[in-house]
Amino acid sequence: MAKQKPIINVVFVGHVDHGKSTTIGRLMFDSGKVSPEELEKLKAEAQKHGKAGFEFAFVMDRFKEERERGVTIDLAYEKLVTNKYEVTIIDAPGHKDFVKNMITGTSQADAAFLTVSAKDGVQPQTKEHVWLLRTMGVGQVAVILNKMDTVEYKEETFNKIKADVSGILKMAGYKPDTLTFIAASGFKGDNVAKKSTNMPWYKGPTVLEQLDLFKEPEKRIDLPLRMPLQDVYEITGIGTVPVGKIESGVMKIGQKVIILPGRSGKGITGEVRSVEMHHEQLQQAEAGDNVGVNIRGVGKKDIARGDIVCDAAKPATIAEEFVAQVAVISHPTVIANGYTPVFHVYTAQVPCQFIELIEKTSPDGSVTKNPDFLKNGDVAKVRIKPIGNLVLETQGTNPHMARFAIRDAGATVAAGVCIEVKAKKI
């Protein structure tokens, strides 16, 4: 077998209707992943549903439907091989109800394309997605200023939106002058996989070229094995198959593992029997790989999405309480002690209570010890108690297992990272 190209997970995020799925569909079509016949079929399908012009979006949606039928263990992803990488593309839903999936998708990403429509510019969710990317630790971001065809391919419109988006990126701690802004039209195919002739003023890369310009992700194989479960399938002839992305470490056949917290809350031990990626059996998989595994001694009833497969010799901690650095993004009022929203950590969702506000830094840089409350724009050090079992590690121990988003009433209100943890005795 030829040496496999390095894998990079790339998430497309952006406000609903700003053209993410269409851009991905166009990328697949122009790079030969989807045949012209197939596209004709999708075109007819789109027209039948009264969605003329949505054929490219249907490319990704077709995979979604396939996924819902559980035919493949490949999750919501599509594979694209470029000159340099094997790219796993994650289409993160922009609609606000889907933000929890977006958080999951983003927590698995090495790089991201933020898609902003040149016609509509920055929207509330554009801002939310930028903060999420930042908190989830996605350092590499490129911006697609999409739908350039709707603004007559004008350079001044591109520059205006670029300036607006740069402002938001800067607030979240990115350096906009080091990021690539691509002038594109997913629908017309400008600068997606092929250079556009409609914007001679644009000298940057296409979306396809940008994929190869992202830096190769650092594989954290030096850390102990951690694999958050995305889903648990029952596959005929194999048995129970938990699926997820290995965040750190290496997984080998025959390895002793413990799945935490498990249904019991005390963890369940087993041994890795088989590992599969993109329908191929592997002897071992490592950080960055999206895999399906079968573990001896573990049944479907024992585990669920949000559990973590750990090396049995070096398990993660279940948190009794923890101290975190939290950024308040958009809370309708204020956050005070006793507040108990849902924390989304990798793929787990656990309600947690704020039990102490240690100190806060306001947007102007002033620091207050033991504030009474936190409001939008504040960054604070807080003590938190999970109501239920939550596996968490500190940023210093394992950054992949330390980040979280906080959601309440259907919106992301804050995001943060764990800096100290007190382990629960199990």
Overview of this protein structure:
By secondary structure, the chain is of the alpha+beta class. It has three domains: 7-213, 3-Layer(aba) Sandwich (Rossmann fold); 226-311, Translation factors (Elongation Factor Tu (Ef-tu), domain 3, Beta Barrel); 319-423, Translation factors (Elongation Factor Tu (Ef-tu), domain 3), CATH 2.40.30.10. It is built from seven helices and 22 strands. It has helices at 20-30, 36-48, 55-68, 99-107, 124-135, 155-171, 207-213; strands spanning 7-14, 77-81, 86-91, 111-117, 140-146, 181-183, 226-235, 239-245, 250-252, 256-260, 268-277, 280-282, 284-286, 290-296, 308-311, 319-328, 342-345, 348-361, 367-369, 379-386, 403-408, 411-423. The strands form four sheets. It has a six-stranded mixed β-sheet, with helices on both faces. It has a six-stranded antiparallel beta barrel with strand order 7-8-14-11-10-15. Strands 16-20-18-17-21-22 form a six-stranded antiparallel β-barrel. Helix 1 (20-30) crosses helix 3 (55-68) and helix 2 packs across helix 3. The model is unreliable at 65-76 and 93-101 (pLDDT under 50).
